[in-house]
Hints:
The structure is a homodimer. Chain A is mainly α. Helices cover about 50% and strands about 5% of the residues of chain A. Chain A has 6 helices and 2 strands, in the order αββααααα. The first copy, chain A, has helices at about 15-40, 60-70, 85-95, 95-115, 130-150, 155-160, and strands at about 45-50, 55-60. The first copy, chain A, has a two-stranded antiparallel sheet with strand order 1-2. In chain A, strand 1 and strand 2 form a beta hairpin. In chain A, helix 2 (about 60-70) packs across helix 6 and helix 4 (about 95-115) crosses helix 5. Chain A starts with 13 loop residues before the first helix and ends in a 29-residue tail after the last helix. In chain A, about 35% of the residues are buried. Strand 1 of chain A pairs antiparallel with strand 1 of chain B, so a sheet runs across the interface. Chain B binds a DNA duplex (17 and 17 nucleotides) through helix 1. Chains A, B: One of its GO terms (molecular function) is DNA-binding transcription factor activity, RNA polymerase II-specific. Chains A, B: This is MADS-box domain-containing protein. Chains A, B: Keywords: DNA-binding, Nucleus, Transcription, Transcription regulation. Chains A, B: InterPro entries: TF_MADSbox, TF_MADSbox_sf.
Amino acid sequence: MGRRKIEMKMVTDRSCRQVTFSKRRTGLFKKANELATLCAVQIAIIVFSPGGKPFSFGNPGVEPVVGRFLNRGDEHHDGQLNGIQRRIQLEKKRGEALEKALARAKASAAAAGGGSDSLISRSVEEMGMEELVEMRRRLVDLREQLDGRAVEMEASSTLLLLSNKSESAGDSRGGSWGGGRRRRSVAKWRD
Amino acid sequence: MGRRKIEMKMVTDRSCRQVTFSKRRTGLFKKANELATLCAVQIAIIVFSPGGKPFSFGNPGVEPVVGRFLNRGDEHHDGQLNGIQRRIQLEKKRGEALEKALARAKASAAAAGGGSDSLISRSVEEMGMEELVEMRRRLVDLREQLDGRAVEMEASSTLLLLSNKSESAGDSRGGSWGGGRRRRSVAKWRD
DNA sequence: TCATCTATTTATAAATG
DNA sequence: TCATTTATAAATAGATG
């Protein structure tokens, strides 16, 4: 697609790689936009430049699409809607083990609510890998809870739960280029 | 790019639209794969077909990329690496408010550890939106902490922290190199 | 550095099996 | 309905200012 055919290996020269990245990212986003337009579908692309900077494209926006994707229970592809009742049934089926895990997750959240701030003095930086992994496990439990709940709510609420920071709790719509994230308004074309 | 030039409007015929979607989705994923290969970058694409079915592509996987995107603090784009020290400095700059929030988050995790499972009897389904939002906020704080720690670790560990599920809460290695959400492997090529 | 140019390669719309 | 083919539009690698 250029003067010469190129090998499909990482471009070794940093400068060339950056140029290639910029050109192809532009092309990719354009293609994505065409796909969204021609087929009237939702699409989101997130890409980090070689320098580590995030670029994104989304129709109608990155977060609605990501939210829809993440919220999707793995077991049901009902497409449209699906009552929470079905979900609950599935969850109950998972058995007591999950129930206990959920109880712990809830206890965690509640305990945090009345939290005594000074109970834990060690900094997270001092924690070992094992502890972090365990923290993460509970975190995942929490998130499962949130996701399970989320299917009940309409899209805007779901967005609130999934978006990292909730200032934009509203429903900022409009297909967007560039940063899906709040500060970036339209497009960053340079890295 | 075909026998004829086509208008950039929604293809009205459902059948043609589906064909166009399949072809262009394939092309888009191929381009994304090339971009990832040539430039050694992380990228994720999520697209819902006209029928509402999800398709995804991700390098090294959808969730690691989405996680990185959602977790990104808006204020620092340090790019490469950055010792945890730099991160800590930035966090300290945020002031006492954040310090307190973090302390609460840590307390939460710790409380969960010694958790009394029966403290909370209400089901999550019964919780109100506000409580869920608050739970989510703490969750985000926790995750920020984990991410701050994560920069110290090598990629595989980072992947472990960010990937949504690890059945084996222990230290399941060999991060899933491709899958989107847990059950999905890499890409679904048919709708 | 950076945008623009163009020779080529690549993607794909329509045709075809 | 699909997969394959083919004529053409579109993307882009390298050149150039």
